[in-house]
Fold each of these.
Amino acid sequence: MPLRVAIAGIHIESGTFSPLASLRGDFLTTRGAEMLARYPFLADPEFADIDPLPLVHFRALPGGCVRRADYEGMKRDILDALADLSEPPDAFYFDVHGAMAVEGIADAEADLLAGFRAMLPAGTLVTCSQDLHGNVSAELVAMTDLITAYRTAPHVDVLETRARALRLLLRAWREEARPVRARVGIPVLVSGEMSSTTAEPGASLYAPLAAESDLPGVWDASLWVGYAWADQSRAMACAVVTGTDAAAVKRTAEGIARRYWNARERFGFLTEACAVDDGIRRALESPVRPVFLSDAGDNPTAGAAGDVTAALRGLIENPDLREGRATAIFASMPDAPAITVLRAAAPGATVTLDLGGKLDPVHGSALTVTGEFVSFHEGANPEAVIRVGGVRVIVTGKRRPYHLRQDYLRLGLDPLEHDLCVVKIGYLEPELAAMARGHFLLLTPGAVPPVLTGISYQYLRRPIHPLDRDFTWQPEAELFIS
Ligand SMILES: [Zn+2]
């Protein structure tokens, strides 16, 4: 008899400092069989014993808090789909990011999973996969039998992690085991820009996890960096180790947590961080081309609104760029009213636009820009390019990332042919890193400022590094037994 595994989840990383609420319409909804595209590995013989029962999955770009009514509606949809099954599933796979914030709910993933647990027969196995930028509470770990997370940032092991969550589930089922989890919340917060596993200390903190997952009595060793731009008591780094030998599981979790704690002073920006004007000037003075600049405070892929104009203003006001002696790409400015104007513009026309400052009026205001209309690209999310002096500005209808070389080439823009490329991002995704010969982090205003010590948190569990520095800490794992 195969293992009937219900699958569902809401996947979003949401920041509590963004004024732009995430709405149901921001989520891509997949139901039933169409969800299986998320799990292509299920076709492998290894997973032949799994009979997947995909219910509903919601996925959105990172954003602000999910509006309460929209969250409740998505939760109801998922629970209705569970109730519609002809008989209860044998197991449940909770496929989430792990850093969803919902208005009025401090621990949204735990709330959602509690909804499932209430409907599942007692003893139903639950497995969960998360982004390593999730914030994992003890309440959540108590409700999952198995939980694992990405081991890379940038995340290149997404499918591998989902497969691991289901492999763990199969093992528990075949061995009729009730795994023990040890969780250690680590009082360290790190901004996304410091969390890359391609650099130190991230690389050495994550590299041993695979071997630690193979220790006798241990099934999985996972480490979360956490998500710093959520003002919640669960926001912190976390180690969770799963297995059958309680002592080994506890010892391993505490070892991982201690390793992370000991590295806390070594986390830093991977590249130089500077104020906007300083960063642009130094990038232009640099001997290499192209130089990428991260508009980090307003990075929509970390939860910011993405229409703060500080970096664009800096480009346009730079004399070399304004006069066209140097060139830059700005990716990008979501602005639906500007898209409407540009759709009607004739090629070569001079256009004046009040760009930005609409989605996030808290961290910046609109910037009046006069330039030449270059091109319009119709689509589900229309894009346009305007030229202001030496700056090519990409305007979009909705927020979206520009992580791939093709995202630019499609628009007739090649970052390799420009001096600078400003991207609303933190660390560079692999294709951007491959193009960049230099990189600066711009400390721009926005909902996800990379310097955490400047943020006024109210609900964080204190003390926590780097907001608090004068404290000692010893890891002590909390054990959960199904
Ligand atoms: Zn992440």
Amino acid sequence: MNHKDRSIMVSDLSYDQEEIDAVISVLRSEWLTMGPRTQKFELKISEYLGVEHVVAVNSGTAALHLGLLSLGVSAGDEVIVTPISFVATSNAILYTGARPVFVDIDSKTFNMDPKLIESAITERTKAIVPVHIAGLPAEMDEIKRIASKHSLVVMDDAAHAIGAVYRDRNVGTLADVTAFSFFSNKNLSVGEGGAVATSDGEIAERLKLMRSHGLTKSTWSRHYDRDEESRDQLYDMVELGYNYRMTEIGAALGLVQLMKLDRHNSRRREVYTLYSELCENLPVVFQEIPAYVRHSHHVLPILLPESMRPRVRKHMAQHGIGTSIHYTPIHTFSYYQQLGYADVHLPVADELGRRVLTLPLHQKLSNDDVSLVVRELRNALES
Ligand SMILES: Cc1ncc(COP(=O)(O)O)c(C=O)c1O
């Protein structure tokens, strides 16, 4: 069955023979769960990012959850977060028993507005969780300055931002911990997967424990440790952890995808540049990209004139062009409304929620594809 229901998909995978071979070699090895390939994947990602420790897990959501736990976020705490993200960002805060406190976004970057953070801090605030939305790095220096002034910890959600750079430093090296997602539509994609990056060895040890039930030894090392004495040691359980382990299939895919990442991100950048040139005279708004960042162009959210979105989406679908919405503000979802966020009004995020439309952006788009998308966007706006 072909799931590709549009001739131009909003996001798309680039898998070829290398990924197929990588998966087959895992199947042939008959070791499917977290083992040597996962270790290698962690090492390669840590080298790529230039960070000391990377702990691979089975989703970005698991990375966010463990990241918060490793920083000591727990019931009764408050965590400052942006409302313009995938729900996983604030759901992970809820998993810990803490309460998300949403602050509005900057209308130019669509990222958390650092100017609004301090007024949201209370004596319960424990952490700040910025998201690099669409792949545009958040204002990390300012966020970290505020965090250190108030003795808070910072975890950035970098699900969109592998390969992004902020003031000459890679995303993944900027906060106490960074959570990545390798979900199917991400720049580096393994189906389901994620990772936490940190330069703190103690945090990394805690993450490893928590990813596998709080056990002191993994199944792989119990079976295959070279050192016989270590192999024969029994394991202890020292914390209440989870099963957030990555599979070897995911890690094998990740190793191949990592080798292609910079090439794919460059093509994404070219596609984005072409879009911005072709859209110059259209009444649409792009994220403003500061000169000191490198965007990873995970998705392309644009703002349309108020109330035109339904018509534009319909027109694009009729012409075989996929679109999406990144994002509906999290506090407006039914679950959050019932949880006590019905009185939360964040004017910039709320307006973005009504106007935003995500155009196709991925490494497989040709220049002709981009021209066609913009032509139909123009037709929709002028019809
Ligand atoms: C911003 C953001 N955070 C977190 C996640 C959760 O990642 P996963 O789907 O791998 O659990 C996603 C996406 O899927 C995301 O886009």
Amino acid sequence: MSFYRTYRPQIIDEIDNANVRAQLLALLSKDRKDLPHAYFFAGPKGTGKTTAARVIAKLFNCEKSTKTGPCGKCEQCESIAAGTSLDVIEMDAASNRGIDEIRQLRERIGLSPVSSAYTIYIIDEVHMLTTEAFNALLKTLEEPPSHAIFVLATTDAHKVPPTITSRCMVIKFAKASKEELLHALQRVVKSEKISISDEALQRIIEVADGAFRDAVKFLEQVSFGKGKIEIAHIDSVLSLSTSHNVALFVSFLYGKGADVAKALTHIHGAVSEGADIRSFLIDVLQYLHKELLSRVSEKNISPDTKNIERIIHLLTRAYSELRYSPIPELPLELAVIESFQAPAPQAGVQPAAVASVPPALAPKTSTPPAVPPVAAKPVPPAQHAPPVAVPADEPEVASLGLLTQEKLLDHWSDFITATKPFNHSVAGVLRSSRPKSVNGGIVTIEAFYKFHQEKLADIHTKQVLSDVLKKLFGEKVKIEIVLGKK
Ligand SMILES: [Zn+2]
């Protein structure tokens, strides 16, 4: 059985969502017969609505209920947990079967429960009901038989007529907080004896986006291997799974996890998996839009909030440039690079981010970025480097066309700037090197120092250079490095 089902909270105390737990506990002060007969659960997917609905079912049918609510152990509680209770009827209004079941609802509602005191009808995605079905439901809610209990759940509360919700006790399911998610994950980690670093747990929490189900499912997904789960493993799994792509990608754009190289690697990964850049960009913008609105409504105007605003501008521009771009991912990549390069209000994020290199591209023998790259010529300070993104009104980079030596010479400094996010010191070495020839898909770069030649000739470095040229000119080339005479 999956972790999510195995570790689904069974009693009120186990419910991870503090607000929901409190509201259910408050019900215990009343006699069962005085409890509301209809409940309306509203909230995003994966926030525990079905779990809480089953706890409600137990609340009514548990044989050994205590001061803390249903016992979770009696025959009734166990059959409800297993989904085998004949008196708990779960319907999904979004499915065809659900529609049929709701049609039959009015006929069967008069029937007494089979083996319990109450029949509990759980209708999931209730907003999907047709008008007729709503009307039928409303009639039932107006005069429910004393043994019938309704739990209506929805991810889209505003689509449910107020005539329905006003007859229910409404419980809102907010997205889970980080603490609540941690609480839920730790329960699984402990029982399954999973070894996982705190950092890795935090990463799962970040990408779960407030959904218990996603967090626990993801923990299960990464816990198959042996040994301790580290954050690198999480990230590599994430880059392959599409559902969390957007949250992970956004985590690379700003804040503590900001890292231009990881963001670019992520785009590369998405493209190679066949992701549609347009819809990916829309998803990212929607995500940032929500984030921005929630920060503004919380009056959280931190440097990060300003940064989000700026990233939204840049990505919106990238979106408008998409249709003219011969390489679909190019505008997005340029926007990402620019978001890191232009002077942001908080400078703290940038050096760390720019210095790191995507694992796949990192030269194994790379010099630490702290070493001054070139001794031969004065190197302009990094912050004065021109932004790699060409302004929107000059879509030049996107249409540079076939690579020739002249073009490469003309755009040598663009090439260096575009290399910088991947590897600072390589960019420095390029500054004192030059393109010697472009011929038959081979770009020959001339270095003038032996150690420069060696650095550029590193197989990973050549891959980076080739990738950057592909981005700029749309052409896949091989890189050769020769040692020239000064
Ligand atoms: Zn029980």
Amino acid sequence: MRIEGDYKADGYAVLRGLIPPELASMLFRQIKLDLEASGKSFQNFAQKHALVEKPTIEISGHFYRPLTTFLWGLTPIMSELTGADLLPSYDHFRIYHAGDTCHVHSDRPSCEHSVTLTLHYSDNQPWPIEMGTERVTGEDPYTEDWGDEPHQSVDMQPGDAILYRGMDLRHGRTQPNPNQWSAHLFLFWVERGGEFMQHAFDEERLRSELRRVSKLKV
Ligand SMILES: [Fe+2]
């Protein structure tokens, strides 16, 4: 792994090769195989997300334990990289399609320390994430573009990640996805003993996800 940037000073840093690209590819294939084995597919698993115009494919770690295990396993190295004593919050997998963008936004309090990890591009076309360079407070409404706001663009290859303070820095993808589709993981941590520790293991979200799924089954 190679670190680009100063997380403490800038609020984000690029983690080149957080995991080997082969591992990123195998993790993606495992998720796809498990989904198909459960009688579903990426085609019939899409749902609407507020930050993306078209339906996206989302799999929460709350319902797919390998993702939760992956999040938990990364916790020691994330504590090392952030210089904070971390507890895992939650994670999820997402597929974006061709032409998708992700509105510029800041994250909720369970995302004190955030990681976006690229797993796979269908057409090997790097799709940049954009990070604001000015700190914000609170979860402002999302915007479709940056306007005059200063920001930087970071290209990522499979296995590369960006570590960022999701609550403090706005972020998004305003360039259309140049691939037919791309697969990404989003992982979040909070600090032990910190202001947001109540979001450790994200039990509140888990309960609301369970309620949502039980309603769908009725
Ligand atoms: Fe976000």
